[in-house]
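Thread: quick sanity check before group meeting

JM: Hey all, I'm pulling together slides for Thursday and realized we never actually wrote out the predicted structure for the chain we discussed last week. Dropping the sequence here so it's in one place. If anyone has concerns about the input, flag it before I start.
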Amino acid sequence: MAEPIPAQAEGPTPAQAEAPATAPAQAKAPAQTEAAAEEPPVYQFEDMRLKAGDRLQMQLPASVTQEKIIRVPFDYLHLSFPKDVQGLMVRKAPRVKTQIAAVIETSAGKVEAQVSNLSATGMLLHSVTALGAKGDELSVTLPLDLYDVKTELKLRGKIQAVSSAPIEGGGEQHRCGVEFLGLQPNETLILQSVVHHELAKNPYSVV
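JM (edit): ok, ran it. Output follows.
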């Protein structure tokens, strides 16, 4: 005989229902920062490609409600599914904030740029000159300082993302996401060492 379900299990209490309502206001507090200005991608239920037996760990937003509790043949919940699901892309390698002046060589010539973050697989460039379009290849001369030992890497990369924003006084600042191409083992080792060195100095520098 199925165990009777307590009445309070049928749904959230008024206090529980109201608790998540403050979350959006708190989440919007750092909206002025550049990172928060970028909206995370939105996924549909079909994009999750779930199958029977998959295990999930979820943090339920206020829009998800408890439909009912089932005790037989085992305990589980029936939940409503939200219309939209937001997700974050997981990077292939750790990425840290940097301030490195680099020289970029494109088909249009040499340009100075700032490396604002770096990983063993790519980097983000800021420049006052457009560096190209998505899919274009470029070369970068990257000066690095690792444990007070200065070295210089000359790497090839492919532009994966571009954007721009106006700056005070006129003009634009161009952002360019670059994926490294054809890295040699020693180049990968140096890049990984630089990233881990930055993380050791400042754990909050991770992007």
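AS: nice. The mean pLDDT is 78. Residues 169 and 187 are 39 Å apart (CA to CA).
JM: adding both to the slides.
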